[in-house]
Every structure is written in C-alpha cells, then in structure tokens.
Design a protein that fits this description.
The complex is a heterodimer of chains A (384) and B (142). By secondary structure, chain A is of the alpha/beta class. Chain A has 17 helices and 11 strands. Chain B is mainly β. Chain B has 1 helix and 10 strands; from the N terminus they run H-E-E-E-E-E-E-E-E-E-E. Chain B is globular. In chain B, 37% of the residues are buried. Classes of the chains: A alpha/beta (384), B mainly beta (142).
C-alpha cells in the first residue's frame, strides 16, 4: 500500500441555520476552503467522496444536487452514509482509494443542513418491522443505554456535566464552532432541561448546519505540496449487529470501538494511547458517551473515566487534550461531523489549529460513532 | 395521494409475529454459540450460522436499562408524535439471551419506580394482530 496523508482542510462556519446558502453552496464553501488550504485547483482532484444522511433532509441522491458544488462533475463521485460515522467512513474510503494507487488526490466533503430537515425521519426508518415501532430518536435511543453504564461503572451526572463544560469552553477557541460558551458551569448543565433521563439539554449535541472537507493525497503529492502532511498511520472501521438489544452492556463493552482502537493502535505502533497520543478528536454525541469512549479507547481502565475528567487529564492543559475543537457536543452537522474529526486532527498535525492548537502535536486520534454501534478509528501522525 | 410501503417480514419474523397474536414469544437459538436471540432472524451475526431452533421465552423478565423520554419523538409507523413523557426499557425476557427495547408503563406513585433489575411483564393488547405492538408495553411487577 502507498503512504497517504491529509494535506488540506476546510470547513464552514457552523450554526443552527445557514439560510444564507443552499446545500450545494454550503458544500462548495468547505470544498473550496480545503483546496485553497492545500494550494490545489479543482482540476487536480481525481475523485470526490461525499458524506451525508440523505433522509435527514428528505431528498434523494444528494450527490446529484450537491456533487457539482464539490467539484464532482465529470469525476468519480460517490456518497457514504453510515449515520454519525459517515464522515470518518468517507475519509477512510478516500484513504483506501489513494493507498491502492487508484487515485492520487481525493476530496472528501461531508455536510448536513439540519435546519432544512428532520433527523427523526432518518432515525425512525431503520428495520421497518421492529425498530420503526419502538425507535425513540437519537436522544431516547442513546439515553436508554446510559442507566446501565452508570450503574456498572459508577459514573455520575456531575462527571458527565464536566464533559459538557469542557466541550463548550474548548469551542470558544474555535471560530467555526456552533455552540460555544466559555462561562458555562457544571451547575448550568445540571439545571438544564431533562431530554431523556439522565441526558439534559446541555449534555446533548446540537443539530447544526455545516460542511467540512479534507484533501487526501498520495505520499508523493503530499511531500511535494505540503510542508507538514498529516500522515495516515491507521484507519479502521467496524460494523455490528442490527438491534440495540443485540449488544450486551453496550456502552460498557462497545466492542466496535474497542476492537477498532485495538487494531488501529497496533497498526500505528501505539502502546499506551494516553502516553503516545498528543491530541484526540472523538465523536461524542452525548456527554456520557465521551466517558464511555475513554474506556473503550483505552485512555484509562474500565471504571476510571470519571476520574479522568475530574483530574483534567483530557482538558487543554492535560496529558491528552480530547476535542480541542469543542467536539460533536459543540458542532454536529451529522454528515460533516466525522470529516470534522479527521480535519481537526489533521489541523493539529499541520500546526494550524490556531487558538485550539495543542503544542507540538505529532500524533492525533480521530474517531467516528454511527447509529448505536458502528465505529471508525483513525490515527494521523507527523511522519509516514 | 396516499403512499404505502409494504415490507416482507421473512419466515422467521412471520413466525414470531404470528406467535405474538397467541401471546407466545419465541426466540431463535444459535446452535453454535447457544445465544437465544430476539428479534428472531435467520442468521446468527456473530457465528455466521443459520439458526433454526426455536425456543419459547417468557413474557416477563428483568429490566436491564431504562429511560424516560421528555422530547417528542415521531412514531415511525404513523408519522405522528408520541405523547411525552414516555418510558423505554431494555428487557431481558426469561429464557432469552439478548434484550428487547420496548416501551415501559410509567409507574404511578403507588407503584415501584423504574430500577435496574426490576421484574417486568408484558401487557398484551386485547385485539392482537400479529405485530410488535401486540405488546402495548412492559410494566413493573408488584
């Protein structure tokens, strides 16, 4: 396999409504920004990968409507849709396309315009015989697994609130973020409206309008075009069984993420992720998810996630800053959110993350989380 | 114009649904890993093996996880919102190895509250028609 790197990133300003642009224009904004960042022209792009959850906005084949906005006309142009993992999966698909030698430069653009749709039309339309009867939306379905996780691992509502506070404070350093609030307190989170026990409003990600793009290039192109390429050291994706109840002690085991991380760490020669990673951008749709993912990603032993957040290990000043961008808790255009994770990890390696830069970041983790099971894990590094 | 979608259930789900009409819950057991799985499907995803051994499962079991939802969610069958708040649970029926996600009856003040490990039982609809909502919800047993 050839070496592969992320050599450019671009994202829109994310907000609850981007009425100033249509969906193709939103996509074009991110695509053009990423090409500008990579100092490439549309003609340099061999293929385009889009990620978007088409039922959320209630229209078919969005790649037809917006593909042109991603400079896809006349080029190979495909769409990936796997819920929250869509963006990381599209990124991994691009890594494969370039690593195989099929293409030298692939542009990945993820986007969602939640203000023009209804997430529930997508969330309620899985298995029509079982899930459609009992599906409870993104909030209810996730919340259902938390009571079991809290009891088993001793996680408290206060510890989850600390995750939510960290995210919104970090987002204040990110000009692209949707929700940012440097003054939000644990008490604010605990006093916010209950959505689905124990998840409160400020524990939950927003629904955002936004797009994000990355330029993926072969090693030859990367060395020629980019001063500090973010080299792909590992890229792993995992699928799982169809029903919520198939996955025993789901958040405590999270076998997709655990297995993907284990495999990725082996590929990237990471022995102790807390020591060997410099920064992580993980897909946490709910505050509680971040705590569960700390354990599944091996950042701590099972049962130690609450201590990790309390001791500030994952804060900007800690041993391993997690989500300097503010994460999904601050910005969630679903089809873009996974691309944002890879882009933010790449920005850290590029050394261009501005006020959210982690000093001397050489190894960065990006993850995706889709529906209630799928997981993607990507490791980027300053050397191939 | 009214649009209509029809989905084939497959043989395993058909047998399961016809059983519900008779207040009978059956799971498929994988002969390799031994897991008794609900909702039934013809293949064990972990063992990649065809399942054909049906086992009877009780209509009561243990509450493994629960939540009370306060945000309106759409009923995917009707497109109309469900009334809030409503309770959801993961229930491990006696005789099954997987759990089922289903509605829970909101306990009244005089009843035991929702709690992990609580014993729950199915509340069946009187006019059953062979669908998953033949079980209205599960309720905490006194």
């Amino acid at each position: 396999m050839r070496s592969v790197a992320v050599i450019g990133t671009g994202q829109t300003m994310h907000a609850s409504r981007r009425d100033d642009v249509s969906q193709p224009e939103l996509v074009r904004e991110a695509a053009a920004a990423a090409l500008l960042d990579a100092e490439l022209a549309p003609r340099d792009v061999d293929a385009v990968l889009l990620s978007n959850m088409e039922l959320f906005e209630g229209r078919a084949f969005p790649e037809l409507w917006v593909g042109e906005g991603a400079f896809g006309a006349g080029k190979p142009c495909l769409k990936v849709a796997t819920g929250g993992t869509s963006g990381t999966s599209a990124g991994i698909a691009a890594f494969h396309q370039v690593a195989s030698g099929m293409f030298d430069v692939v542009l990945v653009v993820g986007f969602e315009k939640h203000s023009e749709g209804h997430t529930q039309t997508g969330m309620a339309l899985t298995d029509p015989l079982w899930d459609r009867s009992v599906a409870s939306g993104a909030v209810g379905n996730f919340a259902l697994s938390i009571s079991e996780y809290m009891a088993e691992r001793g996680v408290s509502e206060r510890q989850a609130a600390m995750v939510a506070v960290k995210a919104r404070k970090n987002a204040a350093n990110n000009p692209h973020a949707h929700l940012k609030n440097a003054r939000v307190s644990i008490e604010d989170v605990l006093a916010s409206r209950m959505l689905a026990h124990p998840v409160r409003l400020l524990d939950m990600c927003p629904q955002s309008d936004g797009a994000c793009a990355i330029v993926v290039a072969s090693g030859d192109v990367a060395k020629r075009r980019c001063a500090r390429p973010a080299w792909v050291r590992a890229a792993v994706t995992r699928h799982d069984r169809p029903y919520l109840g198939d996955l025993d002690r789901r958040l405590a085991t999270m076998r997709t993420l655990r297995d993907a991380a284990h495999t990725a760490y082996r590929q990237a020669a990471i022995g102790d992720p807390l020591r060997d990673l410099d920064v992580a951008e993980i897909y946490e749709p709910v505050s509680y998810a971040e705590l569960a993912w700390y354990e599944a990603l091996g950042l701590c032993q099972d049962g130690e996630a609450g201590r990790l957040i309390e001791e500030g290990v994952t804060s900007m000043q800690g041993a391993l800053p997690v989500n300097p961008s503010g994460g999904v808790l601050s910005t969630n255009p679903v089809g873009a959110s996974g691309v944002i994770r890879i882009a933010e990890a790449a920005l850290q390696i590029h050394g261009r993350a501005g006020a959210r830069q982690v000093a001397d970041a050489r190894t960065a983790l990006a993850t995706g989380y889709g529906v209630y099971a799928w997981a993607d894990v990507v490791v980027l590094a300053g050397a191939p | 114009m009214e649009l209509c979608w029809r989905y084939s259930s497959g043989a395993a789900m058909e047998r399961f649904c016809l059983g519900l009409r008779e207040r009978r819950i059956e799971a498929l057991r994988c002969d390799r890993c031994g897991r008794r799985q609900l909702p039934p499907r013809p293949m064990c995803g972990d063992c990649r093996a065809r399942m054909s051994s049906w086992v009877r499962v009780a209509d009561q079991g243990a509450l493994v996880a629960w939540t009370i939802v306060h945000v309106p969610a759409m009923d995917g069958r009707t497109g109309r919102p469900r009334g809030v708040p409503y309770a959801m649970g993961l229930v491990r029926l006696d005789g099954a190895d997987t759990t089922l996600n289903h509605f829970l009856r909101m306990p009244e003040a005089t009843q035991p509250p929702l709690a992990l490990g609580a014993r729950v039982r199915a509340v069946w609809r009187a006019d059953r028609r062979g669908a998953i909502d033949d079980i209205v919800h599960f309720e905490v047993m006194p």
